[in-house]
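Recall that a protein's primary structure is simply its ordered list of amino acids. Everything else, from secondary elements to tertiary packing, is in principle encoded there. The following example makes that idea concrete.
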Amino acid sequence: MRVDSGAPAPAPETVSPVKAAFRRAAGRGEGGGEERSAWARGRVVAGVAVVTAGLLVFHQAVPNSVGRLGSLLEAFLPWLGLVVPVLLGLALLRRSALALVALLLPVAAWTYLFGGLLLPAPGPGPRDLVVVQHNVSDENADPEGTARALAEAGPDLIALEELVPPALEVYEKTLAAEYPHHAVQGTVGLWSKHPLTEAGLLDISPQGIGEGWRRGLRAVVRTPHGEVAAYVAHLPSIRVRATGLASAWRDESAGLLGEEIAGEKAEAVILLGDLNSTVDDRGLAPVTSRMNVAERGMAFSFPTAFPLARIDQVMVRGGTVGHMRTLPATGSDHLPVAARVTLD
């Protein structure tokens, strides 16, 4: 049954063009709800993107006072880039314009820090030296095969760590023909196509590590481009524990190495070694602040099964490290790295 009150039906609301425009701008007009929600959704994803960008750019602000968390972050800093594709997937799933825009921040930060390493290697120059750095492992079951593999890269210099008898004799014998000049101190050694002089111990032993710890070598190489002071160093190992990163000896040894480099009188210095961290780790700042690091190439060298970081380094003072790359695996738990060094 219908009851007609006789009252006239209300007239439809008349909206002026100006009012309609304001509603559209505020997202209340036709289709505006979807537009508004696209910018309102995904705030958590956007927040994580901003935090990731902050960690990349301001990683040095992360304190080292508790568990050396700063150094731990910096040791694996490039891997923060993996957060981006995860967040991208979540942003698309949420259809969040806010999150997509926020993702530009970590992308820009990662590109600024590491994008240059992905660029093609520069062409060879007239003042280039090719060098190879390798921790051969004291458990390497095939030192002869390792030596031959390194020599196949045709470097001017080969630096080796964890040299132990009787494997040392195998390296000396296998490399003798192509590398007639070599020097060994403790468990580190340098082989060269060019004459070596002033070879001796480089004392980078931290206090309390024990007598007989000799993992540093300095020699002068008479290259076709002039004399170069070559340093070979194997810094103490670090450990990742439940309490954080244990790196006190490594940091102390890095400080001693930095002092030696600062006092070096030769204009050109090449450092080769297993420094047990990446160049982003503030624990290596006494060294990296005085040396030029690789401009091209990620060259993750450890561990061999799934390389996570480049802890085998080539640095130079009085020149540039134009490119670094890894060589095929040997019997070691490290991958060899090869670099082209251009002297000034």
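The chain is about 30% helix and 25% strand. The chain has a mean pLDDT of 91.
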